[in-house]
Design goal:
It is a single chain. The chain is about 75% helix and about 0% strand. It is mainly alpha-helical. It has a two-stranded antiparallel ribbon with strand order 1-2. One of its GO terms (molecular function) is transmembrane transporter activity.
């Protein structure tokens, strides 16, 4: 009799077959949505690449391709962190100012304090993480919205850069410092290797760890995640710390490229970073996004900007183009979400 009761309770605890099938179907559809987004972004990247190949004889030169990789590295590293943030339906508008402040302070550690450049890179990265921690605490402890929190941090960090440098570049770093932003290993640019390694790590975190599962859960339905026992505040804070660390590290890459600390670096960078994530399929409504899609978006943005320079397109028109691309990406996101909602009924 006891065995029968136990068997009955076990059966009762199991979800109905219909629910299991519906859950599997929903996950499959979400996966298909991600694949479609990546294919669309990849197709756009291929089209732009082919067009610029014929439009400019300089585009396919080794030096220009190296420049594209170096430029993309900064955007891609920050965009990897932004993918986590956007998946939780958050936003970080302070990444450009964070990168500038972290890069300048990292260089000042080398020039003014005599810190070895590898440790200075670590120091600049940690400074970025501290900025991310402040953002996370303000959002989760003070209950400020991500938009207001990071908008304020954008102003604070940019102001601190000017205070520390008097708006003058910081010079005097050793030549070895350029390895991070300009070096190669067996002919492969170090910035590209850095992006690939960070992307693989981020992909594994999103798809194979508790942090990744919780990131998607928080963005898909925050209240359901809370009721499920997920410590939302703790993980959200961690995500903003990760974003800050990556912004700080990207700031050091940028400083390494020019072998100096530039206080004006990163102005408008948040636009490219958000565009890269959204173009790659990350939904501003939360719950969707992939690292591969973000990388495709980052390279697309960099190639568009590089091609605009080669074709002598005014820089103001470049910003217009990127803004329109963001509009199209968000419109596509809303369109596919509506189609997904109808198909799920």
């Amino acid at each position: 009799m006891k065995n029968i009761i136990n068997s009955s309770s076990e059966v009762a605890d199991q979800p109905p077959i219909e629910e299991v099938g519906a859950s599997f179907t929903q996950r499959l559809r979400e996966r298909l949505v991600d694949v479609v987004a990546q294919l669309a972004a990849g197709g756009a990247l291929i089209i732009v690449f082919i067009y610029l190949t014929f439009a400019s004889p300089v585009f396919l030169t080794l030096n220009n391709l190296f420049n594209i990789v170096s430029q993309t590295a900064v955007t891609a590293v920050i965009a990897i962190g932004m993918t986590f943030v956007i998946i939780t339906s958050g936003i970080d508008l302070s990444v450009g100012s964070n990168a500038a402040l972290s890069g300048v302070l990292g260089v000042m550690l080398i020039v003014n304090s005599g810190v070895p450049w590898p440790l200075a890179i670590l120091g600049g990265t940690i400074i970025g993480g501290i900025i991310g921690l402040v953002n996370g605490l303000l959002i989760n402890a003070a209950r400020l919205s991500p938009f207001i929190t990071t908008l304020g941090m954008m102003g604070v960090a940019r102001g601190l850069v000017s205070i520390f440098t008097n708006s003058v570049g910081v010079y005097g770093t050793p030549d070895d410092f350029q390895l991070l932003g300009q070096g190669t290993i067996y002919g492969i640019p170090i910035p590209l290797l850095v992006v690939v390694l960070l992307a693989l790590l981020a992909h594994l975190i999103l798809n194979r760890t508790r942090l990744g599962r919780y990131t998607y859960a928080i963005g898909s339905n925050g209240e359901a995640a809370r009721l499920s026992g997920i410590p939302i505040k703790r993980y959200l804070t961690l995500i903003y710390v990760i974003q800050g660390l990556l912004a700080g590290f990207a700031g050091m890459i940028a400083s390494s490229r020019v072998n100096s600390g530039q206080p004006n670096f990163g102005i408008g960078l948040e636009l490219d970073v958000i565009a890269a994530a959204v173009i790659g399929g990350a939904s501003l409504f939360g719950g969707q996004g992939t690292i591969l899609g973000t990388l495709i978006g980052a390279f697309l943005i960099s190639i568009i900007r590089n091609g605009a320079v080669l074709l002598n397109v005014n820089i103001y028109y470049q910003n217009v183009i990127i803004g329109v691309v963001i509009w199209l990406a968000v419109f596509w996101d809303q369109f596919r979400r509506r189609k997904f909602a109808v198909a799920s009924r």
